[in-house]
């Protein structure tokens, strides 16, 4: 069983490839329904990733509808691949979204939102363990972004798959999740 980031990254990319469009929609809706159970609805600013369809990421459209229905401020990001930094913008009716060269849907422009303002972050990932460690694509964008947020910012991973027992090669700079939501379960991590 894979336990290091490189092997797990490969394993979970392959597991995702096997998912059909219907699987993705069904599981994404189930995840959104589980998200409703989280004790996070008293906040104002929620950061949501827009899925890379080609990577078969969780479709966050259902979560966007939940947030919109609850009149929450929704924040989306634009990535700078040279600095590996993310810039955050308020998602409004006027926000134009365009895919970048890596097929990541991003806001073209908009009202900037500082990382410190964001209270809840929905985090994309490939795999996670029972301790709240996550594996992304390995570029460190989210670790950098989450480190800029306030310590009390709630970090919620979204995954089609359940937790692995342990990721062996975790770094000090890796930011842990507070929760991870799968179609079946909500994992709550305590440190």
TrEMBL record:
GO MF assignments: 5-formyltetrahydrofolate cyclo-ligase activity; ATP binding; metal ion binding
Residues annotated as binding ATP: 5-9, 134-142
GO biological process, one term: tetrahydrofolate interconversion
Source superkingdom: Bacteria
Full protein name: 5-formyltetrahydrofolate cyclo-ligase
PANTHER family reported in the protein's UniProt record: 5-FORMYLTETRAHYDROFOLATE CYCLO-LIGASE, ATPASE INHIBITOR/5-FORMYLTETRAHYDROFOLATE CYCLO-LIGASE
Gene3D superfamilies assigned: NagB/RpiA/CoA transferase-like
SUPFAM superfamilies cross-referenced by the UniProt entry: NagB/RpiA/CoA transferase-like
Annotated positions binding substrate: 52, 57
Species of provenance: Flavobacterium saccharophilum
Reaction it catalyzes: (6S)-5-formyl-5,6,7,8-tetrahydrofolate + ATP = (6R)-5,10-methenyltetrahydrofolate + ADP + phosphate
A Pfam short name: 5-FTHF_cyc-lig
Keywords recorded for this protein, A-Z: ATP-binding, Ligase, Magnesium, Metal-binding, Nucleotide-binding
Entry-linked InterPro entries: FTHF_cligase, FTHF_cligase-like_sf, NagB/RpiA_transferase-like
This protein's record includes keyword Metal-binding: yes
Cofactor: Mg(2+)
Enzyme Commission number: 6.3.3.2
């Amino acid at each position: 069983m894979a336990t290091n980031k490189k092997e797990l990254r490969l394993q979970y990319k392959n597991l995702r490839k096997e998912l059909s469009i219907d699987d993705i929609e069904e599981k994404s809706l189930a995840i959104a329904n589980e998200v409703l159970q989280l004790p996070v609805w008293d906040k104002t600013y929620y950061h949501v990733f827009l899925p890379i369809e080609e990577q078969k990421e969780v479709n966050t459209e259902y979560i966007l509808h939940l947030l919109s229905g609850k009149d929450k401020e929704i924040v989306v990001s634009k990535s700078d691949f040279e600095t590996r930094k993310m810039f955050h913008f308020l998602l409004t009716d006027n926000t134009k979204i365009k895919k970048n060269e890596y097929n990541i849907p991003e806001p073209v422009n908009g009202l900037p939102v500082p990382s410190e303002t964001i209270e809840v972050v929905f985090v994309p990932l490939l795999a996670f363990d029972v301790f709240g460690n996550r594996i992304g694509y390995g570029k460190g964008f989210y670790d950098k972004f989450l480190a800029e947020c306030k310590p009390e910012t709630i970090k919620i991973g979204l995954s089609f798959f359940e937790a692995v027992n342990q990721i062996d090669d975790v770094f000090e700079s890796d930011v842990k999740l507070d929760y991870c939501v799968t179609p079946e379960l909500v994992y709550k991590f305590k440190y």
